[in-house]
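Appendix C reproduces, verbatim, an entry submitted by the partner laboratory led by Prof. M.T., so that reviewers can inspect both the input and the predicted structure.
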Amino acid sequence: MVFATTPSIAYVDSLVSGLNCHVLVLNRNYMAVRVASVKRAFSLLYRDLAEVIHIENDQYLSYDFDSWRQVSEHKQRFEPHKFDWVRTVHFSMAVPRIIRLVGYDRLPRKEVKFNRRNIFARDGNRCQYCGGKFSTSELSLDHVVPKSQGGRTIWTNIVCCCLECNVRKGGRTPEQAAMHIIKKPTKPKRSPTINLQLSSERYRSWKQFLDHAYWSVELK
């Protein structure tokens, strides 16, 4: 891994998991705007385009790249289990959960992207007819009201459906096929993928920035 405009940095294989984490990005007004990779987050920090926002004892603490490095040294010594880590040749750094863009105050997007990934996330990779959980390769997207009957390709008319249920339903409505929808499809107020991540203990600090329905986080 190499930070943009930084010297080349080699990471220890045993700590690669830290690079697989995600970082919530806030604008200057502390509103969530996106989720970034760890590599992108450290690049922004190193170039002084962002600062770490760390919540400790219900207080918001902010750190630049150098001060977060110093904090990381302390955390690694006394409470390493509370963080994910990346390691350079010369030092280790804790992966921040939240960063704030110091010169960016645009509002986040209000619309959640209507795409396959977000539909799968909204439905939890479960067939909305039989309730079974499947891999994405075993699921299709079904029009509740078929297009042949005037059904539209919108949030409220698309659900995840396993291949068996899709064949059984065919070009009929659930009522016509004597099938029942487990959960009525709705348009999410924020990215469904973020909702999945919030179930992880490591991302619980994100919740207070995402609770308001006005905020919509777009994965990059």
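The chain has two domains: 13-109+191-219, 116-169. Additional entries are available on request from the coordinating office.
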